[in-house]
Amino acid sequence: MGFKVRRSVVASSYLILAWALCWLSPGHSQEPNRDIPANAHYSAGEQGWTCSHGFTQVAGVCMEDTDVLPSQGAFEVFDGGQWRCRSGYHRAGRFCVPGVAPAHAAFVGEGEHWECDWGFQKTGSECQEIKPPPHGYIEASGHDWACYPGFGRMTDRCVPMPNPAPPSG
Predict the structure, then answer these.
(1) Of 102, 107, 139, nearest in space to 124 by CA
(2) How far apart are alpha carbons 146 and 65 in whole angstroms?
(3) Could you give the 3-state DSSP secondary structure of residue 84?
(4) Is residue 57 part of a domain?
């Protein structure tokens, strides 16, 4: 009886070993993503890889932490791995620092270019509210005012325009 139990245990051990070897064979393992950047390693995340210790992911590549500028959130990468500042930031040495727009303004485009909000007009380095005179309105661009039909702009007011003479005939 002891011999049969021992033979059964040995046979079971061989079956478990055979199953484990089959399960670990290349036919049943996941194929790793071979398209990973330098200085990265495979990971279980959705992307399939992560940057190695001492490297940070920037635009799909792993850059050495010493190459990543401290304010990297303000940068974008473009041709040749050069850095440029995002809208609202300007370069100050190795850093992109936030610019200061006046009240009622927003940054547009690259660098520190700003424009006044709708209903405000650029005056020097400020945005002043547009206050149309009687018989005037803020025009579609939102950066100036115009007079209603029948009125003409005269410096800072709208004045009635003379009616053209009716055609004689």
Answers:
(1) 102
(2) 55
(3) strand
(4) yes
Instruction: Classify residue 154: in a domain, yes or no.
Output: yes
pTM, entire model: 0.45
For residues 15-34, one letter each, b for 16 or more C-beta atoms within 10 angstroms of the residue's C-beta and e for the rest, the string is: eeeeeeeeeeeeeeeeeeee
CB–CB of 68/58 below 8 Å?
yes
Total domain count for the chain?
A: 2
Range of the domain at 134: 105-160
Residue 31 in any domain: the answer is no
Check if the beta carbon of residue 48 is closer than 8 Å to that of residue 36: yes
Mean pLDDT in runs of 10 for the chain (169 residues)?
58 64 54 70 77 76 64 54 69 74 82 84 92 94 93 94 72
